[in-house]
Amino acid sequence: MTKPNNEFAALVTAVTEAIKQSRKYGDTSEATIRQLAEEAVRQHKKPKAAIKAVRARLHSIMAPYLGDPDYDAVAQQLSAAFAANDQVHVNQLCLASLEAHLSTRERLPIMTDFYQQIFAVTGQPQAILDIACALNPLALRWMFPEVGERWSVNGERLKFYAYDIHEPRINFINHYFQLEGLEPLARVQDVAMHFPQEQADVALFLKEMPRFTRNYGDLGRPLLQALNVRWLVLSYPSISTHGGRNLTSRYRDFMHQLTDGLHWPITELLFEGELVFVIEKQLNGR
Length: 286
Known about the structure:
A hairpin with a 2-residue loop joins β2 (152-153) and β3. Helices cover 48% and strands 17% of the residues. The chain is an alpha/beta fold. It has helices at 2-20, 30-43, 47-62, 71-83, 87-99, 102-107, 111-122, 140-143, 167-180, 209-216, 220-226, 248-259; strands at residues 127-130, 152-153, 156-157, 159-164, 186-188, 199-206, 228-237, 266-271, 274-280. It folds into two domains: 2-62, Helicase, Ruva Protein, domain 3 (Orthogonal Bundle); 105-285, Rossmann fold, CATH 3.40.50. It is globular and about 60 Å long. The strands form two sheets. It has a seven-stranded mixed sheet, with helices on both faces. The protein contains twelve helices and nine strands.
């Protein structure tokens, strides 16, 4: 048994290293790559086939086609704008970053109203979890347009936890947080492997549950149950990207199935292009 186990471990390491050295997926969390490599090696005897399988999974999970800014360049520009106290330029750079990713780009026309309506239900949070965050933390200034006193909410410093598996993205978000005077609480963490443990008022999971379900099956419900928050905010595209098909009924049914039996009160908010469910978790449903 020792030899096959050693061979398996060696092949997993070889596949992991091959992916980490690749230009397209090398910046992905190594823990995620290794997990996928283990699955691929169990299914494919040849390293090339296993590497190809891991790349296919990462393409679905990472969705690189959704877009990214030049993180190093924008980080430098943000540093200069903050140093000059040029708040207009800071806002412009944040908006440009949000526009670089399809998910947040689609939300730009409704962004201020989006968060106003959500926080009207939840109350203004002092701590947020942004699950599979992509570039959404750059919307911070539109989430809290009235917050003065250096991100103080009801006398407490805002805590913004953000989770993603793209290492340069997390480094960039933490750089931005520090420029804003916030703790660098963005983390390279695969939430499918390790559910976030931090306590917060609100957890955001925006337009990610369909892909999460496609990649991880029925893990969405246990993830939501595990999150240590009072409020869950899940959103879905209300119109399909290709063809303009209305998706509201489909995702209402999906949410009903996802939360069936949990007895969590749900408030639905419908925006142009995005359907939002604001869910109050109940202790007996956790």
